[in-house]
Amino acid sequence: MFKKKWTMLLLTSLCLALVLGGCGSKGNNGGASQGGGEAKGDQVTVSFMHLWPEGVSAGQNKIVNQIITEYQNENPNVKIKQEVLDNEQYKNKLKVLSASNELPDVGVTWAAGFLQPYVEGNLFAPVDDLLSGELNGKFVAGTTEAYNIDGKTYALPLEFNIAPVYYNKAIFAKYNLEVPQTYEQFKQVVKTLSDNGVAPIALGNKDRWTGSLWYMYMADRIAGQQTLANAISGSASFKDEGLIKAATEVQALVDSNAFVKGFNGLSNEEAKSEFLNDKAAMYMMGSWDLPNFTTNEEIPQEFRNNVGFFKFPTVEGGKGDINSWVGGPGVGLFVAENSKVKDEAKKFVEYFVTKWGEQSVTGAGVIPATKVDTSNLELPQLYIDLFNEMNQASSITLFADVQMPANAAETHLNMIQALFGKAVTPEKFSEEHDAAIAKGQ
């Protein structure tokens, strides 16, 4: 399985691809036919299921439609039939379709452990042939490796992500708050906001992986990146003193009313709306959400102008580095192994990935997995600032639920929700992780 050792090579290459070029996680809703596309005479229909709906992913949605329109104009015998779902609906439907081997011809997947069961079930087709064709040398080094299992590549990445804490500068100014550099300062920010009736942090932990981001940063800052990575890989234990302390600090945040009311029952989209509507001061999320704070014209410019970000603060006595991030290669495109139009599906994926690069930067403010010359591009300052911070990254730890095998990832996510809901102790949280990872499934 893909591990974390790619980190610094990937960062170096990403910097060369974008910085030297000059830079300082949605189409119509037509249903995709389950079980794949079809070919009738010279006409070919390719089903494409993705997770960029209008509204919440306006920039990406517009780009997807542009690419599809261009592809169909250049290939009049091909129709791309879309099905568009939000993030959690997408994951659930992907599981349902895989159970009956009726995946769309082209779809979206995550890397590493998420990918593993689909590969083991012979559901995704290898796409190494595309890497030796038009796309040869186009990817930032280290990104495609995230989708490599047993020497074969099963998807092509579109994005590279890190997870900052976004904050509302107007709310911070109102209460004379400064960006926290230490965890003690961060807790004081939380207290000031809470005391004044403002929800400090927007969190939709119904989706669970959202809470995982907070736990991972806490674990990184207290126990250190290597300790966390070793525990996730199974070469060390979640019973490490630092990791147990991280879980304890998560519950301390809950006790301090750090998160919006009802956070464990809110979806990520519901929680995000609290931040977008000035009802919460902070929101941690991957840089796939950067477009909502830069280029998404459906969100008022006044709000977008008021969004800043900061790195998760250091913890006194902790082993972590403020320049260590949680993140990694984002979603990628797969081709279904049993697709009846596999050749055309691969051609579409190759075309899509090629076009996505620059368009995703200018049209959506996304950091792509392909090399883009940004020397002549006008980019939002928030995008530039976030990318410049990425230059200084000392390490990047891939999202825990993506790294872990499927069953262990499910245990991790369930335990995250239980931890935030105070339904388990930090010790039980750790024990359940070790047991699930030991099973290796």
Automatic annotation (TrEMBL):
Gene3D superfamilies attached to this UniProt entry: Periplasmic binding protein-like II
Entry-linked InterPro entries: Bact_solute-bd_prot1, SBP
Pfam families found in the cross-reference section: SBP_bac_1
Source species taxonomy: Bacteria, Bacillati, Bacillota, Bacilli, Bacillales
Alphabetically ordered keywords of this record: Signal
Signal sequence segment: 1-21
Protein name per Swiss-Prot or TrEMBL: Extracellular solute-binding protein
